[in-house]
Amino acid sequence: MKGAKRNYIFIALALAIITYYQAGSYNVMGQIIDSCQVEDSTIALKKIIPIDWDTLYIVSGPENSEHFYQSFQLTGNKNVTRENEISLYFILKNKSVYIENYNENSKIRVGITAIDDPYIEFQATRASETKMKGSRVVAIYGNKEILRFPLFDQLFDPCIPTPTEQN
To answer: Model pTM?
Structure first.
């Protein structure tokens, strides 16, 4: 009887720890990847996470947050974007409020055959911004933008979400 009670306590503790660590993650890249799978889907960026933010920076690795923050005059928690990884920095008034790292090689979806998640090519809406030149920032989006996901061939083409301004 004591062993069963101990097992229940262990399971409850394990679930609490898992829930605690997942509570701080909004799985933004998971939402974007899922949208790539649905023809002509859209994501309103301001609704993608339930916190206030005004600018989203997408950074490819390798990049150190201190260099990135300095280049764009931002502040926030330290972060390292590793090789083959992208980081999503959600910013409010020049301070990071949420950071999500995504390793392009970390997920495999299994169906009839195992295939990787789609390769995603983000389009920069502010490509002419001089700060982007020489940095690892691949795109900057405002929270009023909507990402549209056109149909693509997952075996041969990247998923290219197209940003448009929301009315």
So the answer is: 0.74
